[in-house]
Amino acid sequence: MPPIPPLDLTQQYQTIKDEVEEAVKRVLSSGRYIGGEEVKAFETEFGQYIGSPFCVACNSGTDALYLALQALDLQPGDEVISTPFTFFATTEVISRLGAVPVFVDIDPQTLNLDLDQVEAAITPRTRLILPVHLFGLPLNMSRLRDLAIAHDLKIVEDCAQAIGAAWKDQKVGSWGDIGCFSFFPTKNLGACGDAGAIVTADPEIAQRIRQLREHGSPERYYHSELGLNSRLDALQAAILRIKLHHLDRWNQQRRQVADRYQAGLQSFPALQLPQPLPDSEPVWHQYTLRVKSCAAAPRCQNSPSGDTSPCDLPNTPRCRDWLKSQLADQGIQSMVYYPIPLHQQVVYQSQPCRFSRLPVAEQCAQEVLSLPMFPELKPEQQDQIIQALQQLLGSS
Fold first, then answer.
1. How many C-alpha atoms does 380 have within 13 Å on its Cβ side?
2. DSSP letter at 106?
3. What are the residue ranges in the chain where pLDDT is below 70?
4. Which DSSP category does 351 fall into?
5. Pairing relation of β-strands 196-200 and 178-182?
6. Distance CA 17, CA 327 (A)
7. Is 95 exposed, middle or buried (0-12, 13-18, 19+ CB in 10 A)?
8. Pairing of the two strands 54-58 and 196-200
9. Using CA atoms, how far apart are residues 96 and 94, in angstroms rounded to an integer?
10. How many Å apart are CA 396 and CA 268, to the nearest integer?
11. Which of 68, 278, 336, 390 has the most CB atoms in a 10 Å sphere around its CB?
């Protein structure tokens, strides 16, 4: 069997090649490469898709988060509750504005914020909560919104990995005060480069963000505050408009891939499978399971300890890194998101942040493994993956 990659963007492109190339030629012929009608049309269409009356396109998902927090007037010393188990950009923007990330541990089942611990982390300095719908699995947004209202806090949703996902039939991004999206090429809705967007139901916030993304300029050559140059290229907008029409179909294909994994891997005692919440509609940006470490993991040649003595339990399921290596030997490429929780990153040894104990996030960082996941993944490829795991781990 040929190698199985963690994702394959070329297959998707071949299915929409003619549409995309026609859209690109249209933009090139127009001479309008930044802003213009393509960007306005995408903002309208994407806002309607999410269910938010206002959408502001920008240069990246990171910029979307930064602009959202700046538009809410986050100040130095303010506290923002978020997760230690996510991509660095989520809390990088908090620190960039001089605010303090407050890391709260994650739920061991969903890998999203543990809402039981969020309320305990609130102080008089807390301004907002920044949840992440990690791997495309939605957080319980009705409970989080009730919590935010009770404490007069804002919510900025990081939906970079959850485009099209829903909680109680309402798209994520439309639950909080602001929803932030990334269209990085590997996302469920990916551009051919960096791109992002912000959605909100508040017209004043939308107008403020439009001003901030244009160097803080409400009118050309007039600047009322410091902003960014964070505009979406018309080429990317045109490509995203094409892809948006296919997004629901691609997400449904991802659900089918996830269902096959769930059915095929449920009897593996060494694996803890992802568990979406009952009222959620996930979009499976990644299929990320946990490989339960065995008693020999500290002595495993692939363990972080660096101890290279051989494992003395050869018939026992090994650690995550051993399994990843063994799958690679069979041509199956898997990924690790994220090997170092944010509170353990070097930068946060000197940057202000706050946290107590985060044992679940730290354990998950040692156990998570993302199997190949993309809409075009074939059933026979999944059978190959499941059979390889059966050979390596056995089942009950």
1. 3
2. B
3. 293-318, 395-396
4. S
5. antiparallel
6. 32
7. middle
8. antiparallel
9. 5
10. 6
11. 68
Residues 6+ apart with CB under 8 A from 107: 113, 114, 115, 360
Q: Give pLDDT, residue 393.
A: 87
**Residue 104 tokens, joined:** 């709260």
* Residue 359: Cβ within 10 Å count: 9
Torsion sign across C-alpha atoms 283, 286, 287, 288? negative
Q: Which residue has the tokens 């502001």?
A: 56
For 266-282, the pLDDT digits (tens) are 999 889 999 999 999 99
| Matching residue, tokens 């950009």 | 89
Burial letters 257-276, b for 16+ CB under 10 A, else e? bbebbeebbeebebbbebeb
Distance CA 102, CA 84 (A): 9
Phi, psi of 38 (to 5 degrees): -60, -45
- Helix axes 379-393 and 247-265, enclosed angle (nearest 10): 30
DSSP code string of 362-373: HHHHHHEEEEP-
**Structure-block tokens of residue 304:** 């972080």
Indicate yes or no: pTM above 0.90: yes
Specify the length of the chain in residues.
396
